[in-house]
Design goal:
The complex is a heterodimer of chains A (194) and B (398). With 194 residues, chain A is α+β, with helices and mostly antiparallel strands. Chain A has helices at residues 3-8, 22-25, 28-42, 83-87, 129-133, 159-169, 189-193; strands at residues 66-68, 93-99, 112-120, 139-141, 156-157. The longest helix of chain A has 15 residues, at 28-42. The N and C termini of chain A lie far apart (73 Å). Helix content of chain B is 69%, strand content 0%. Chain B has helices at residues 4-39, 55-64, 76-94, 121-131, 133-142, 146-177, 182-187, 197-200, 202-215, 227-230, 240-265, 282-307, 315-343, 348-387, 389-397.
Chain lengths: 194, 398
């Protein structure tokens, strides 16, 4: 480009084809240098991880398969408040609530619990808004990333399956790390701490 | 009629070629994938068999069992025939290439060449290698697809251009041996290291290797089949076994080119210190065979390495390399060779002249390309200025 054009077009960043020098225009030294580079690569350490044998180290704040946490008595921590279902942008959570009776010693300190809690793992977009919405830290996303299944039906996780995921992942050192939120419902750990 | 004594060595040689070349082709794809992986800091195929060694066989079985798809819009007879023609041309050129050590005396018993003692061997080879573009052109044309046709047209231009430097570069070799017979050419290069053609004809060797590489359609020169611009080029419409035939043809070309490079310029089965002068014992024969195959393997490896090192030429660059660099250099080299051979001075003069020609070409390239870039930029700048509507408007106002 000529100088006048350069001066007129001030907003344009000009890039020139670099001029070839003597060694480059002979081609052969450049080709030899290129081959030197690729040969060096052959003997350098390769970066491949042999995946199925060597698993990647997934950070604990990864958003993978959901789990339903248990409270200190081993019951489902969820209080069936429907906040996660409301927050879910993909409409993948289905909850049916049941009220507890005060006579039942097992549920004496709780008002409500989910009779049915289903998450369609295929609809879920793993955004993590359900665990943000949850007032009692009952629903959490684990670092399980390799979820597979043979049918659509088995990818709809019910309450027992979600609790199973909790049993598999809790205490393994890979528990999800989440920010503590305010004190709410009776199933919350934070209430107990205070 | 052919009698038994000439028939059985011929059959054995043909059997070896027909059995080894497809398997070698399969395994070359495997080695190429492995090498590519290593160059890119990966591992490469390692699942099928020990160290992935059966990957080639698995690929072969898979591609044999694939559905035979023939698109509706192709010209069927030519479409079906094209891969076969490509492979036949590739295989034909192997007929005169010795794939093992062959003595120069008249043929008796087994010789490691299909057609022993062909006096026009190299000429035949050049002719057939020109024909090998035929399969590609037919395939691209019969596919009835503009990308395939573009690939075919490019390959046509490429083959025509690179035939010439290929022919020019082997003349020196022929003149040195006084024969077109490849076995004689190899015999003329024995036994010492200094008598290899590459040392005193380095420029011819470079030109030969470059143009031969262009004839194989491999990466620095793979314009007929570039994936990015031509969605695969001439083989876009091919799948399954027909696709394999095209690729077998390409790998057969690689094998042929590697053999030729070794036989014409790197002393064939000669290696200093390893030359057992009797040549009749089985051990000597085996050693020579090993030397030849080792050299060929090195050249094949080098071709693969080049593929993963160099980017593809642009089409004008491709033509420029042939017509502006290789052909003039080849002609000048030929003139120098004629002078050296006529004056009967030491052959090493030619090595010096080759080097001088190469450097002179580089210097010419530097000075010419500088002018060309500057000239183009001024003219394009003036064009933009005159055609800018804003300036025209301003000019008409003042």
């Amino acid at each position: 480009m000529s100088e006048e054009v350069r001066k007129r077009e001030k907003t344009v960043t000009w890039a020139d084809v670099p001029k070839m020098n003597m060694m480059e225009s002979l081609y052969l030294p450049a080709i030899a240098a290129g081959i030197g580079t690729t040969v060096k690569r052959i003997f350098s350490k390769n970066e491949t991880r042999q995946y199925p044998e060597v698993e990647p180290n997934i950070p604990p704040n990864y958003r993978g398969v959901h789990r339903l946490n248990r409270d200190d008595k081993g019951r489902v921590k969820c209080v069936a408040c429907f906040l996660c279902q409301t927050a879910c942008p993909a409409n993948c959570i289905t909850i049916e609530a049941t009220s507890t009776s005060k006579d039942d010693p097992q549920w004496a300190d709780r008002d409500k619990y989910p009779a049915k809690f289903e998450i369609d793992e295929l609809r879920c977009i793993y955004c993590g808004m359900c665990e943000q919405a949850c007032p009692v830290d009952a629903i959490e996303l684990t670092s399980i990333y390799d979820l597979t299944g043979m049918s659509r039906e088995e990818m709809v996780f019910d309450r027992e399956k979600l609790l199973e995921v909790y049993d598999q992942t809790s205490g393994t050192g890979k528990d999800p790390v989440r920010t503590k939120r305010g004190v709410l419902g009776p199933a919350s750990d934070i209430l107990k701490e205070q | 009629m052919m009698d038994w004594n000439t028939f059985w060595p011929l059959s054995v040689a043909m059997g070896i070629v027909l059995a080894v070349v497809p398997i070698a082709g399969l395994y070359m794809t495997f080695i190429e994938r492995k090498l590519a992986a290593l160059i890119q800091n990966r591992v490469g195929p390692n699942r099928v068999g020990p160290a992935g060694l059966f990957q080639a066989i698995a690929d072969g079985i898979k591609i044999f069992l694939k559905e035979q798809v023939i698109p509706d819009h192709v010209f069927k007879p030519v479409y079906v025939l094209a891969p076969t023609i490509g492979l036949i041309c590739a295989m034909l050129s192997i007929a005169v290439v010795p794939f093992g050590p062959t003595p120069t005396e008249p043929p008796t018993g087994f010789r490691a060449i299909i057609a022993p003692g062909v006096d026009i061997g190299l000429l035949f080879l050049l002719a057939i290698s020109g024909l090998s573009a035929y399969g590609i052109i037919l395939g691209g044309w019969a596919s009835n697809n503009k990308y395939s046709l573009y690939g075919a047209i490019r390959s046509c231009a490429q083959f025509i251009s690179y035939e010439i430097p290929l022919g020019l570069s082997v003349i020196g070799v022929i003149a040195a041996a006084g024969s077109l017979n490849i076995e004689q050419i190899v015999a003329a290069q024995g036994p010492g290291l200094a008598s290899w053609n590459v040392w005193w004809q380095p420029l011819a060797a470079i030109i030969f290797f470059t143009s031969a590489l262009a004839e194989t359609n491999r990466l620095p020169f793979d314009l007929p089949e570039c994936e990015q611009e031509l969605v695969g080029g001439f083989h876009t419409e091919y799948s399954g076994i027909k696709f394999v035939l095209f690729f077998l043809a390409e790998y057969t070309h690689v094998v042929t080119v590697s053999f030729l490079t070794v036989l014409l310029f790197f002393g064939g089965w000669h290696f200093p210190g390893l030359d057992v002068d009797t040549g009749s014992t089985l051990t000597a024969y085996a050693i020579r065979w090993c030397v030849l195959l080792a050299k060929v393997a090195l050249v094949v490896g080098f071709i693969m390495q080049l593929r993963w090192t160099l980017p593809r030429f642009r089409f004008d660059q491709l033509m420029g390399v042939a017509w502006k660099a290789l052909i003039p250099l080849g002609m000048l080299n030929l003139a120098a060779l004629a002078v050296v051979l006529t004056l009967d001075i030491s052959r090493w003069w030619l090595a010096g002249i080759s080097l001088f020609l190469l450097i002179a070409a580089g210097m010419l390239n530097v000075s010419v390309s500088k002018d060309r870039i500057e000239g183009r930029s001024t003219s394009s700048a003036s064009r933009t200025r005159s055609s800018s509507p804003k300036e025209q408007w301003e000019g008409s106002r003042s």
